[in-house]
Amino acid sequence: MSKSSYPDHHLKVFTLNSNPELAQEIAQSVGVKLGECSVKRFSDGEVQINIEESVRGCDVFVIQSTCFPVNEHIMELAIMIDALKRASAKTINIVIPYYGYARQDRKARPREPITAKLIANFLEVAGATRVIALDLHATQLQGFFDIPIDHLQAEPLLSKYFDEKGLDDIVIVSPDHGGVTRARKMADRLKAPIAIIDKRRPRPNVSEVMNIVGNIEGKTAILIDDMIDTAGTITLAADALKANGAKEVYACCTHPVLSGPAIDRIENSAIKELVVTNTIPLSEGKKIDKIKQLSVAALLAEGIVRVFEEKSVSVLFQ
């Protein structure tokens, strides 16, 4: 990746409040300084954004995970997009390491909204011209946008970490049927078999392990998921794997939402180590010994440079 200055400083990277540490890493990797802007609140809670440098004719990249507090960060992003549009930015590229509301991607019951589509519409109407996302909860969410979207994947980064650990006799485990494709990619990269947890979910954030499909006895199991929220699914799966003869259980995910009882559940589970990325920042209370956090800054920075230089992004999937 080139570290040289870009012509006339036409590439600019801004961050809002959700993940400034990741944004700083990305800017350093791209080879530019973070753009100058301020995000403040009026006394009634309304968001006020001031862009403190010219963006006229620039290709602008705004880094914002729509994580907790989700609605606050979505509004920050939409207002920033509008400010950039009115400031005559050439393109407004939104980099969303974690896309909130992604699980509301279909009508599971009558009279339910499809909020993931609503948010996509909202950001488009605000004026976004391109999206760079990382490990959307469902790949079909790409179709919710009518603007170009580059969907990057953290699986190669996670696979590299486990490959370098030199674990013996591993098996890659999907915690549900929906994650089989993700598990297969890691299994192919690590040349390992896969197993699947067959479970039933009676209501949201509650899961019940039913069966384990595949041979896990005496093996080192690696559970992989796109996100971990309350950690009920992943910890029940880990405990079931251990109870059915797995030697050790590791787990990994891209997005560490880790809400509610998640940390306590992880601490008290059979998981030996949980590997996550920094798409969502971890508060001090969530930085426990069992959790290892990897940075996706270089991956996202490479995506930004390739979009700016109009090069292929697909090579980043290798």
- Main beta sheet: 7 strands, mixed
Question: Number of DSSP helices?
Answer: 8
Q: Could you spell the SSE succession in H and E letters?
A: EHEEEHEHEEHEHEEEHEHEEH
Distance between the termini: 16 Å
Share in helix? 25-40%
Uncertain residue segments: none
Strand order of the largest sheet: 10-9-8-11-12-13-14
Radius of gyration (Å): 20 Å
Decide which structural class fits the backbone: alpha/beta
By DSSP, the count of extended strands is: 14
Mean pLDDT: 93
Q: What is the global morphology? A: globular
The fraction of residues in strands falls at 25-35%
Structural commentary:
By secondary structure, the protein is an alpha/beta fold. Helices cover 29% and strands 27% of the residues. Strands 10-9-8-11-12-13-14 form a 7-stranded mixed β-sheet, with helices on both faces. Strands 1-4-5-6-7 form a 5-stranded parallel β-sheet, sandwiched between helices. Strands 2-3 form a two-stranded antiparallel sheet. Strand 4, helix 2 (70-86) and strand 5 (91-96) form a beta-alpha-beta unit. Helix 2 (70-86) packs parallel to helix 3 (115-126) and helix 4 crosses helix 5 (180-190).
